[in-house]
Every structure is written in structure tokens, then in C-alpha cells.
Amino acid sequence: MGPNPFIGVIYHWIGGFASATNFIPFRGIKRWSWEVYWLIQGFAAWIIAPIVFAALFVPNLSVILTSAPRSSICYALLWGALWGVGGLTFGLAIRYLGIALGYAIALGLCTAFGTLIPPIYDGSIHTILHETSGQIILAGVLLCVIAVAVNGLAGLSKESEVTPEEKAEAGEADFSFGKGIAVAIFAGIMSSFFAFGLKAGAPIGAIARSVLIAHRRLDLWQNLPVLVVVLWGGFITNFIWSVILIVKNRSERQFLGAPGNNPMRAGAVSGKTLAEFDPLDRAQHRITTKTLLANYLFAALAGVIWYFQFFFYSMGQTKMGKYDFSSWTLHMASIIIFATLWGLALKEWRGTSRRTKLLVATGLFLLVSSTVIVGYGNYLKATEPMTHASWQHRPAR
Fold this sequence. Notes:
The structure is a single chain. By secondary structure, the chain is mostly helical. The protein has helices at 5-21, 34-57, 61-67, 70-122, 125-129, 132-161, 164-169, 177-191, 193-200, 202-214, 224-249, 289-317, 327-345, 354-383, 388-393. The chain has one domain (5-247, 293-383). Helix content is 73%, strand content 0%. Helix 4 (70-122) crosses helix 6 and helix 13 (327-345) runs antiparallel to helix 14 (354-383). The termini are close together. The model is unreliable at 264-283 and 386-397 (pLDDT under 50).
């Protein structure tokens, strides 16, 4: 199967929707501390889902992983672990900035670093700069960064306009632009290492592709084994930090029903959060069995939804052709677009001025435009007539 940038963009948009939706189930969790549900969603997202789906679509998964070059496995794990640090701080960025703004700033920075550093590192940036299709793709990346700056201005404007009560009602009781922007910058830089992990795991994908072709399967699934390794690295970092917090805060009892504090709660007072806990009411001493099971379900659901972003990303990347590095821009931009729409649906921008809403709309328009431009650049590259030399070195499909 050859490149098809249009289909690739569609896959990236589906993945972006999954990522932007990941935090929604967290809002249904009652009286659990962050480290408890973060560990459960991480186990579902980074251990269970990658192995299950890779095993379903790729034959001989264990053989592929054991036969892959050790250096590829080690580097993919390393970059995944560093990306895991970004994932940890990304959750804090969402807590301080809200879904719309947190995604926009953190992932905007992640877009720039994750898209540009790999081709700079491997030297292909020189070719990109001298080809029309490559220049168009880079223009789309630049437009994406500009859109992030516009969203940042919207955040500054929002902080001065929305009252604490309105922020709390939208689930943003801890909104702080200063803290949030600092955390988001760090999270954006560290999160970009995921792109490096995928690059390091390319030999694993090559082996998987050979196996898929041998079994007459679609090579669309060739990057699923790569995800398994990179996400293992991410889980290691998140597991260590979550366990540290669980021990420090003595929150291990929450797994069996002890109450905790969910900082991402939203809505009016309901009597179901630690902040509303009444020590004289013995019925509130423990979480009910029904609520406890729901918490596990919501946390696991968040993890599986999160995994689907890279499930579709891996498919989209195989369709982008030579300039598949631009997949990162498409993926990140689509996440920000759908996160902005979720923010609007959850009324995170309620109470802001017309100027602030105009900034949000402008940022959203620029993000959509950036994905169109990047997709068009890939389309031009995919439809370029191939030279005789290119045909000689074209891999068999």
C-alpha cells in the first residue's frame, strides 16, 4: 500500500480526538487522589492496550520484539521514559490551565520540538528546506506555533476576566496561568521525546512490516510493536512517580475504598468529594462499592482512549510518505483542535469577553489551517514524479 496523505490526515484527526477526549472520564472519578487514578489509567494505556492491540493485528509479536536490534529497543525505551516525564507534568498543566488552554500550549511546544528535531538530527532537514513540498510543510508547522501563541493570549485574557467561582464551576478551581505556563513549557519539551522514540524504534517497525507482508496482512499495522516498547518506557517513569506519591500520601488504601481528593473534579457541590467531606457523617468514611468500581472503570477507560491516539497515529504515519516527520504536527494540531472544542463544550470560556472568544476562534482556525497546509505539502510530495534513481531504490511493497 502506497502513501495517501488524505487518508493519513483522517487517521491523525481520529487519533487527535481520542487524545483530547482522554481527560473527560477523569471528571467522573469520585474521591480518589491523582496518583491513584493516574497509575490505573497508565497501566491500561501503556501496558495492557498496546500489547493487546499489537498482538491482535501483528502476527508473532513476541518474535518481532526479541529479534529487533537491542540498540533500537534500548533507545526506544529511553526516549519513552523521558517522554513519560512530559506526560506526568502534562497532567499538571491541564489542572492549572484547563483542557483547552493546557492542551494548546503544552502540545504546541511539543509540536515544534517533536516535528523539527528528528529531521535536524538525521540531516534530512537540508532536503526538506530545498523542496517546495517540504517548505509548505514547514510553513504549516510555523502556522501551528503561531496558533499556539494566539491561544496563549486567550489564556492571559481569560485569567483577568473569569471569576474564581466560574473557574470552579468549569472544573478549573486551581486555574493559574503563571504556574500552568511554566509546567506546560516543560511538559511540551519533554513530551516531544515520543517522536524520538518512534524514530529509534523504526527497525522494529521494519521487522514487523516484513512479518505482516509474509502473512498477507496490511503493513498499516507495522508501527504497533514500536508503540509497545516506547510506551513501556513511559510507564516506567509514571509508575515510579505514582508509587512515590502513593507512599508519601499514604493513598494506597484508596484502591480498596478509602477516600481521597480528586483535583480534577467539576460541577456544583455534591457531597462526593473530599473537599465536601463531613467527619460527623460515618456514611462518608469510605467510598461505596458502586463508586469504587466506577472509579476503576473511568480510569481504565481514560487509559484505553488515550492509547487510541497513537493507535491511529501509527496508521496515519504509514500514509504520509517520505515526509512522515510531519505526522507529529498533524497529530498535535488535531489534539489541540478537539481539546479546544471540548473546552468550549464544557464552558471553560464562559464569562470571558468577546475579545477573548475571538482569540480562541482565531487560534482554532489557524490550527485547522495548519493541518490542511501540512497535508497538502505531503500530497505534493506523494504525487511528485519519481526519477529513474528513485525507482531503482524504491522499496518493494
